[in-house]
């Protein structure tokens, strides 16, 4: 038995999420049953999709139940095993949730995945070489389907998904433009991640200004857009979209907290003969091996150097998560647990 | 030389289009050059897309130039020919415009198409077995890609595109629900066109009411939607869409006259993992032969009995067109010219 601090969803947000929605509890891990594995988490992943799960409303994913450990991806090591495939010391990623330890039914398909840290640091398996990276890959390769020379744009560009998107799009010969909040993140996009241009959305807080910034950054128009935020950025992209442009809708974080954010001029989807498509990467497990292979190579060869924001200790998870929703993170948001 | 009355676009609409935007003139047809054909129009087609052409704004299609004959599809007969492939008496369809006669360079690809009226009346080549029919076919077959048993919905359902859509979707084993204005059109949808259910949008003028009507008509949710109108109907469809629903965006007539109509909750595209795709049928000429063959068979065998609203005389075209924009037509809107 091991002491295990967990963060539960205590109550649902009314409007903006707050630390008061969460509650920390400490329990003992249960004794393992046959086929189970006890994993000590080194890192917890914090991701925008979690905000959607906190609501009770109809959503694409099941609501996070009240009083249960918050859902979340984790990377750690096996400390005890009653499953023949896993030995103490094995490094694994899974969906262990916001807690220090998890007991996993290892035989469940996809419950645990062993990872190799020779070329890729463990934490990156929660980011560029994990769900966020595959998310970028799916939106780019399967929805946007870019041709060399096309211009693609991504919002929340300095984050885990956006930075992977940039590297994947550059590898395909695209002009890549990133939108991020603040001059530091924009400088990081162009200087360290190899984006061709960056737009600071804080300097362009309305439709007209953002549209002009996109015009300057995308002299040949926009062929593909990876949508993480919604709101006036999406409206502006539609104004600058080329005929037959494709939009992969991965998130609309700007509307997560309250009233839906309208799309001002949907007729542009017709005018530009666009395709706008939403997706959830967990519904496309068939692409993960191919995507992870490419992403692992990009990271292993230094072509993708993802940045991380690391909070310390499980108790810091709620505040770090709320900061992520406001864009206070810089790169992939993690919580380090050991 | 033959006297030819033409309707020109005289000035552009400010807000709603009016008869004052048009001007009738009468001229003599010019003498034919080698390769030209003189066509006497029997029917002129009136279609919603023409409203978009009247504006000067950036659009997917070139603006209709001021002082020139309004663009439009026509069906008629060759009365004089200086092209070896055409003889007087040949029945042809083309883009002759809002006038009684047109002089056509017959060698231009797609300028004229001979048609056979053994099984299909001439006027239907402007509707079910013409551009509107192929429009329905493309949206259904290439974008919605329905499976048997799925539920598909079409707005402006009693019109030329909508009625063809219904027959094509029934032939594929779908549940087909039509939205139209007024009880007569709704009765026509279910009693004569074979729709499974009809919704009168005049009885459901707001989002909540339309959403409830869709829920009742689509007990298994909506898998595909063919969009002709925009506005609150589109918003309501998003609320009732199933996971992986597809929307083919063909028109947004509700917003043609003035300010863009927003889409209230675009995040539903993500929540439902939907595909929303705009298209223009003239950019997909490769599908026309296959589509026209199926549509001709549906009409020839009586499985599709399209209704027509026929205005008489070229001078009636402007008023008939404005009526079409308000949904005063019942079925395909034509002008009979002889």
Automatic annotation (TrEMBL), chains A, B:
SUPFAM superfamilies the UniProt entry points to: GroES-like, NAD(P)-binding Rossmann-fold domains
E.C. numbers: 1.-.-.-
SMART domains assigned to the protein according to its UniProt record, in alphabetical order: PKS_ER (SM00829)
Keywords: Oxidoreductase
GO molecular function: oxidoreductase activity
Enoyl reductase (ER) domain span: 17-335
InterPro entries per UniProt: ADH-like_C, ADH_N_2, ER, GroES-like_sf, MDR_fam, NAD(P)-bd_dom_sf
Broad EC category: oxidoreductase
Matches recorded under Pfam families: ADH_N_2 (PF16884), ADH_zinc_N (PF00107)
PANTHER family: PROSTAGLANDIN REDUCTASE, PROSTAGLANDIN REDUCTASE 1
Name recorded for this polypeptide: NADP-dependent oxidoreductase
Provenance organism: Hydrogenophaga defluvii
